[in-house]
Specification:
The complex is a heterodimer of chains A (323) and B (397). With 323 residues, chain A is mainly alpha-helical. Chain A has a single domain, classed as ABC transporter involved in vitamin B12 uptake, BtuC (Orthogonal Bundle). Chain A contains 14 helices and four strands. In chain A, helix 8 packs across helix 9. Chain B folds into two domains: 197 residues, Rossmann fold, CATH 3.40.50; 151 residues, Rossmann fold (3-Layer(aba) Sandwich). Chain B is of the alpha/beta class. The radius of gyration of chain B is 23 Å and the shape is globular. Classes of the chains: A mainly alpha (323), B alpha/beta (397). At the A-B interface, helix 2, helix 11 and helix 13 of A face strand 7, helix 9, helix 10 and helix 11 of B.
Chain lengths: 323, 397
C-alpha cells in the first residue's frame, strides 16, 4: 500500500467532502424545518431542490443568449442566479404546502406523507415535460463560467476551485442568516412557538398558517439555493437528479437530530465527508476488493452505528428547541 | 354458502381467463398488415440515441417498403419506449409478442435491456435485429431469432486496447466503468487486452454516481495515468471527463461507443475535444452514408445520431427477409422471417452484412474516432483515427 499516496490526497478528499457536506446541509434544512414545525417528512423537498437548479440554469442560459454572461461581473451573475433559484423554490414550496399539505393538516400523519411522495413524482415529471417542450432536452448543462473554474493551488497535490469556495461561503452565509432569523427575530420566535405548540401559539395571537407557510418558504429557499450551487458544482442536471441528494440530505437531517437546525448542518457535513472518503479510499485500502461503488454502504453503516448509540441523532437531545 | 359462491366466481373468472386471450388476438388480427416494432429509449438520459434508432427505422421502412406494398401488404412501424430499463423493455416485449402482426423487432440501444427482452421474443421465435447492442452475451446465447448488425464488446474493448497501446503509446491506464452489463463488459475486455500488451493498469473502479465524481477523480489525479478509459455511456461519462479536466487531470481520454453521441460535447464542451472513442457505428464519410444523412436531415430536421444508420440498415435487412418470405404468396410466419434473416446477404451503406450461425455479422467494422469540435452540430465531422474489420469470435462453449 502506497502510504505517501494515501496521505497526499487526504486534504483534497477532505475539501471535496466538506463541499459536498455543505450542499447536503443546505438541503437538509428544508427537511428538518418542516419536521420541526409539522412533524412530517416533506418528501417533495428533493424536487423543490432541483427546481431551484432548473430555474438557475434557465436564467444562466438566458443571460448567455443575451450575451450578458461576459458583460456582467461573475459575482453579480452568481448572486442574481442564487436569488432567483431561492425565490422560485421557496414559492414552489409554499404552493405545495397550500395545495397538497394544508388540506390534510388534521389527517393522520401518514396521509400527508403519501401526499408528499405523490407531489414528488408530480414535480419530477412536470419539470421533465416543461423542459422537453421548452428546450427539447432532458439533461441541462450549466454554462461554464471561467471565473468559477479557476483553481487555487494550495500544494502540488491539493487545490481548491473557486466553485467549491463559492459553495462553502454561500452555504455558511445562508446558514448564518437562517440561524439569526430563527433565534434573534420576532418571526423566528413565532416559528419556534408554532413548533412547540400550535394551539397555544395561536392563542397568543400568532397566525399559525402564515408561520407554517413561512417555514416552507425558508426551507424551500435554502433548497433552491443548494440546487443552484449543486448545478454550478457538478454542471449536469436532469429532472430526476434531485432524488439521490435529497435522500442523502434527509439522512443527514436524521443523523444530526431531525428538527434541529445545527444538527442538520453537522449531519450534512459528516455524511459528505464520509462519502468522499469512502469513494476515494475504499479501493486503495482494500486493494480493489471493495471499490468506490461501496461508498454509500460504508457511509450508511457508520450512520447506523451512530444511530444505535444516539437514536435521536447527534444533537437530538442536547438542544431541545425545534424549528 | 359464501365460500361456495366465491368458488363459482373463481371458476367463472378462470374460464374467462382461458377464453379471452384466445379470442382477443383473433379479433385484432387483420390480414395483410406487417408491423415492424422498434424498442429503444425515447425518454430519459439516453433518448437522443434511442430517438435516432426509431427515426432510422422509420426512414428505412419508408424507403424499402414499396415491394411489400405491391404484394398487397400494409407495412407499419410501431415504436416502443424501453426507457433504457430492463423491466420496461421486458414488459414492452410481452406486448409485442401478443401482437401477431409484428414480424420483426429493431432494437435495443442497451445490451442490459436487449438480453432479457430477447428472452421474451425467443418464446415465439420473433426476430430481433439489433442496431447497437455490442455485449457478447446478446448473440452468444445462440438463439435463432437474435441478430445484430454492429460489432461486439469483446472485440471493441481490444480494439480500444490496441489503439491505446500501439497508437497512443500509453504506459499506464486508469479504468472506470458504470457497473452495467455494457459498461463493465467492455471495460473488462479493454483491461485484459491492455494488460496483455504490457500497459500498467493503475486502477479499475465502478460507480453508479451521476453527479459528483470528485472523490473518484482525486486518486486518479494522484496516480497520474497516461490514459483514462471510461466504460459507459455519455450521460455519465461526459460529466466525469468534464470534472476530471476541470480538476486539472492531464491524462488522455478514451471510451467505447457509448460516447458516440453529439450530446457528449453538449454536456462536456471543450473539455472532451481531442478525446478518442471506439465505435461500431460507421462514420458518415462515405457517399452512401452522406446520402443517408441528407435524407435524414431533410425528413426530420436534424442530424442522425449514431446508430440511426445501423437502425436504417437493420430495417432494410428485415424488409428484404420479409420480401423473400412473402414471395411465394404465403402469409409470413415469425419462424420463417427469423430464418430468412439469417440467409439475407445485404449490401448497405455500412458494408455487406451476412449473419453467422449465432447472429453476428460475419465481419464487422470497428472505428476509433477523435472528437474534433465542441460544437454538437459538427459531431459527424469527427476524425477517423483507425479502422479495423474483424470477424466475430466463435461462440464460447
Amino acid at each position: 500500500m502506497d502510504v505517501e499516496l494515501l496521505l497526499g490526497i487526504f486534504p483534497q478528499v477532505l475539501l471535496d467532502g466538506i463541499t459536498l457536506g455543505f450542499m447536503y446541509a443546505l438541503i437538509a434544512l428544508g427537511y428538518t424545518m418542516v419536521y420541526g414545525v409539522l412533524e412530517f417528512i416533506n418528501f417533495a423537498h428533493s424536487e423543490i431542490f432541483i427546481f431551484g437548479a432548473f430555474v438557475g440554469v434557465e436564467l444562466l442560459l438566458t443571460f448567455k443568449a443575451a450575451g450578458w454572461l461576459d458583460l456582467l461581473p461573475w459575482v453579480v451573475v452568481l448572486v442574481l442566479v442564487l436569488l432567483a433559484g431561492m425565490a422560485a423554490s421557496g414559492l414552489l414550496a409554499v404552493l405545495v404546502e397550500r395545495t397538497a399539505y394544508r388540506p390534510l393538516r388534521h389527517a393522520p400523519r401518514l396521509i400527508p406523507l403519501i401526499s408528499a411522495i405523490g407531489v414528488s413524482f408530480f414535480l419530477q415529471d412536470t419539470i421533465r415535460l416543461a423542459e422537453s417542450l421548452w428546450r427539447n432536452a432532458f439533461n441541462l448543462v450549466y454554462p461554464p463560467m471561467d471565473a468559477l473554474n479557476h483553481r487555487f493551488e494550495l500544494t502540488q497535490t491539493v487545490d481548491v476551485s473557486m466553485k467549491s469556495l463559492v459553495v462553502i461561503v454561500a452555504a455558511l452565509l445562508m446558514l448564518w442568516g437562517l440561524h439569526s432569523l430563527v433565534n434573534r427575530t420576532k418571526v423566528g420566535k413565532a416559528i419556534r412557538a408554532v413548533a412547540e405548540d400550535q394551539a397555544a401559539a395561536s392563542l397568543m395571537g400568532i397566525n399559525v398558517n402564515r408561520m407554517i407557510s413561512l417555514t416552507f418558504l425558508i426551507g424551500g429557499a435554502m433548497g433552491g439555493g443548494a440546487g443552484v450551487l449543486f448545478g454550478m458544482q457538478y454542471s449536469l442536471i436532469n429532472p430526476y437528479t434531485g432524488f439521490i441528494p435529497g435522500l442523502k440530505a434527509f439522512t443527514a437531517a436524521v443523523l444530526g437530530g431531525i428538527g434541529n437546525i445545527p444538527g442538520a448542518m453537522l449531519g450534512g457535513l459528516l455524511l459528505g465527508i464520509l462519502e468522499a472518503f469512502g469513494a476515494s479510499y475504499l479501493s486503495l485500502l482494500t486493494g480493489g476488493a471493495f471499490g468506490a461503488e461501496y461508498k454509500d454502504i460504508l457511509a450508511f453503516s457508520i450512520l447506523i452505528l451512530i444511530l444505535i448509540f444516539r437514536p435521536k441523532g447527534l444533537l437530538g437531545e442536547i438542544v431541545r428547541e425545534r424549528a | 354458502m359464501k365460500t361456495l359462491r366465491f368458488r363459482h366466481l373463481l371458476r367463472a373468472l378462470a374460464i374467462a381467463a382461458l377464453v379471452l386471450p384466445g379470442a382477443l388476438p383473433a379479433d385484432a388480427q387483420s390480414k395483410g398488415t406487417i408491423k415492424i416494432a422498434t424498442q429503444s429509449p425515447l425518454s430519459g438520459g439516453q433518448s437522443a440515441l434511442g430517438e435516432g434508432i426509431k427515426l432510422g427505422a422509420q426512414l428505412g421502412m419508408e424507403k424499402f417498403k414499396g415491394n411489400l406494398e405491391k404484394q398487397g401488404y400494409k407495412v407499419e412501424l410501431v415504436p416502443f419506449d424501453d426507457q433504457a430499463k430492463p423491466d420496461v423493455g421486458v414488459a414492452n416485449a410481452k406486448n409485442i409478442i401478443s401482437d401477431k402482426d409484428i414480424m420483426v423487432v429493431i432494437g435495443h440501444l442497451n445490451s442490459g435491456v436487449a438480453i432479457p427482452s430477447s428472452e421474451v421474443y425467443k418464446e415465439v421465435t420473433l426476430a430481433m435485429i439489433s442496431p447497437a447492442n455490442t455485449n457478447e452475451k446478446v448473440t452468444d446465447r445462440g438463439y435463432p431469432n437474435v441478430n445484430r448488425v454492429c460489432g461486439r464488446d469483446d472485440v471493441q474493448g481490444p480494439v480500444g486496447g490496441e489503439f491505446a497501446a500501439t497508437v497512443m503509446k500509453a504506459k499506464s491506464v486508469y479504468i472506470v466503468h458504470d457497473k452495467t452489463t455494457y459498461g463493465q463488459g467492455v471495460a473488462e475486455a479493454f483491461k485484459s487486452d491492455v494488460e496483455k500488451k504490457g500497459v500498467k493498469v493503475l486502477g479499475f473502479e465502478g460507480t453508479e454516481e451521476k453527479s459528483n465524481f470528485d472523490p473518484i477523480i482525486t486518486p486518479i489525479k494522484a496516480k497520474n495515468p497516461d490514459l483514462v478509459y471510461f466504460g459507459g455511456i455519455y450521460d455519465q461519462g461526459a460529466p466525469f471527463f468534464k470534472q476530471a479536466r476541470e480538476k486539472g487531470l492531464k491524462s488522455k481520454f478514451l471510451g467505447p461507443d457509448g460516447f458516440d453521441s453529439s450530446d457528449l460535447v453538449k454536456i462536456a464542451g471543450k473539455t472532451v475535444v481531442g478525446m478518442y472513442y471506439t465505435t461500431a457505428a460507421a462514420p458518415t464519410s462515405s457517399p452512401a452514408a452522406k446520402q443517408f444523412v441528407d435524407e435524414f436531415k431533410k425528413k426530420f430536421g436534424k442530424n442522425p445520431e449514431p446508430y440511426a444508420a445501423e437502425s436504417y440498415v437493420a430495417t432494410g435487412i428485415a424488409i428484404k427477409a420479409l420480401e423473400s418470405v412473402v414471395a411465394g404468396g404465403k402469409a409470413p410466419t415469425r419462424e420463417a422471417v427469423a430464418s430468412a434473416i439469417r440467409k439475407v446477404k445485404y449490401a448497405g451503406m455500412t458494408g455487406t452484412i451476412e449473419f453467422d450461425d449465432k447472429g453476428d455479422p460475419k465481419k464487422a467494422s470497428y472505428y476509433v474516432m477523435q472528437v474534433t469540435s465542441d460544437n454538437p452540430e459538427k459531431w459527424s465531422e469527427n476524425k477517423e483515427a483507425k479502422r479495423l474489420a474483424i470477424a466475430a469470435p466463435a461462440a464460447k462453449k
